[in-house]
Amino acid sequence: MSAAQGVLDRLVTGDRTALARAITWAESADPRFRAVLTGANERVGRGWRVGITGPPGAGKSTLTNELISAHRAAERSVGVLAVDPSSPFTGGALLGDRIRMDGRTSDEGVFIRSMASRGSHGGIARATVDAVDAMDAFGLEELLIETVGVGQAEYDVVGAADTVLVVLCPGAGDGVQALKSGILEVADVLCVNKADLSGAERLAADLEEAVSLRDVEPHGGWVTPVVSCSAGTSEGIEDVLAALSLHRTWLEDGRLEAHREARRLAQVHRALAEAVDRELWEAFGWRERAVRLLADGAAHYDVVADLIEELRVQTRTAAGGGASER
Amino acid sequence: MTERRIRVLIGKPGLDGHDRGAKTVASVLRDHGMEVVYTGLHQTPAMIAEAAAQEDVDVVGLSLLSGAHMALFPRVRDELTARGKGDVLLVGGGIIPHDDMDSLEGDGFAKLFGPGTPTTDIATWIQEEMEKRFEREGEEA
Ligand SMILES: Nc1nc2c(ncn2[C@@H]2O[C@H](COP(=O)(O)OP(=O)(O)OP(=O)(O)O)[C@@H](O)[C@H]2O)c(=O)[nH]1
Ligand SMILES: [Mg+2]
């Protein structure tokens, strides 16, 4: 029996170390992950995925911890995938989200995994969706994806989640910042955390206003609710849960299939882009060709045009069978 | 073709309330390109082992200044083994007398680092050890 088959068998029978190993394979682009996921594919899609994003320090992890508690109280199992940034210089990372979810480590119904962003710039890692798929196949019901602290333009989590929860807090810019950054558009639910601090009410009012001024609803008729809470003191969590649950009901009312199909398609597109890049750039010798052309003084657009032309010629040759071979 | 990175968990078992040392080591390991999960203060051996299992780390580093290492370190090792993680590279550091270091090293710990060990040496040691392990795994695969 292959190692992948062993992990697959153990994954579907609830062995947590098998889930942990599958995620490691996903992260390290180990081909065994593909074998595991293929085997578990029909088990994927049962969990509900909530992406939790927002600026650094807004309270994403603290709120995640509160959401875990609430789901556990309702006897739902929970998987958490928490992403922190990798250093662009050394590639190392300090993964600290877990500290805020400390009390949950010994709970059998909770599985928490930290992940470094490893050169991805969209707020999640290349392997994040794969890892959440593995948690889903394992049978975890509530799947929470915490992104790295985002700035103004890192919203890949939209393509990874059913519901996107944006967490903001007073002191990290006003409503104008939020308007500018596009964070309002990605939010299915907007949450002002740290309601115990001054400025929270103002921020919530600004956000309400911004949402109501919107000319085009980015989510096909869903009106983004604004809720406030204090994750640090466990206050207002039920309002956050209620808003999340409303969005879920709304999606499940005939909209979920299209939503998930778009997600799966994006997954294919991304994996394909990676595979094509790997095949052509390394295996097909494009890197050497590019090096040669650059050394001959070509501008980079010309190098790209040359490579694409080469690809066209090759595909035509392949399509025309052996006939056109020189 | 895999993109393996060294994953480390730094844990502080027991009641000792000083985590400066642990944080320093965590950030130096990060600077050496490792991915470091830091779990914070006041962890039970079971919590450290369970986190190590979920995170599927290659290395577990324990830090303890309270003097309770002979009671706590072996318990972490047992909890790791109980979760099928007996094969992690297990290291420790803190204020630990030489005799205790020897006895732990003969007892499931790969290496104990005494007080004053330059953190860079710790990082280099882990890197070299993990390179050997990754190489061995590569041969087996
Ligand atoms: N006053 C107040 N502080 C809070 C609240 N929630 C979280 N905090 C504090 O805010 C800080 C950041 O909280 P985290 O939960 O780590 O924030 P985060 O968004 O996960 O941070 P990153 O993952 O680093 O981007 C911590 O010091 C928390 O204790 C709250 O409701 N009120
Ligand atoms: Mg966090």
Radius of gyration of chain B: 14 Å
**How many whole angstroms does the radius of gyration of chain A measure?**
22 Å
CATH architecture descriptor name of the largest domain in chain A: 3-Layer(aba) Sandwich
**CATH C-level of the largest domain in chain A:** Alpha Beta
Strand line-up across the major sheet of chain A: 4-2-5-1-6-7-8
Q: Helical element count of chain B? A: 5
DSSP helix fraction of chain B:
40-55%
Main structural class of chain B? alpha/beta
The string of secondary-structure elements of chain B, in order, is EHEHEHEHEH
SS class of chain A: alpha/beta
Helices and strands, with pairings:
The complex is a heterodimer of chains A (326) and B (141).
Chain A: H1 3-12, H2 16-27, H3 31-40, E1 48-53, H4 60-73, E2 78-84, E3 93-95, E4 110-116, H5 128-138, E5 142-146, E6 163-168, H6 175-181, H7 183-186, E7 189-192, H8 200-213, E8 226-228, H9 237-252, H10 256-283, H11 286-295, H12 300-319
Parallel strand pairs in A: 1-5, 1-6, 2-4, 2-5, 6-7, 7-8
Chain B: E1 7-11, H1 20-31, E2 35-38, H2 45-55, E3 59-64, H3 69-82, E4 89-94, H4 98-105, E5 111-113, H5 119-140
Parallel strand pairs in B: 1-2, 1-3, 3-4, 4-5
Helix pairs in contact in B: 1-5, 2-3
The complex binds guanosine-5'-triphosphate and magnesium ion.
Polypeptide structure, described:
The complex is a heterodimer of chains A (326) and B (141). Chain A has twelve helices and eight strands. In chain A, helix 2 crosses helix 3 and helix 11 crosses helix 12. By secondary structure, chain A is of the alpha/beta class. The mean pLDDT of chain A is 90. Chain A is globular and about 65 Å long. In chain B, helix 1 packs across helix 5 and helix 2 crosses helix 3. The relative contact order of chain B is 0.18. At the A-B interface, helix 2, strand 3 and strand 4 of A face helix 1, strand 2 and helix 2 of B. Strand 3 of chain A pairs parallel with strand 2 of chain B, so a sheet runs across the interface. Magnesium ion binds next to helix 4 of chain A.
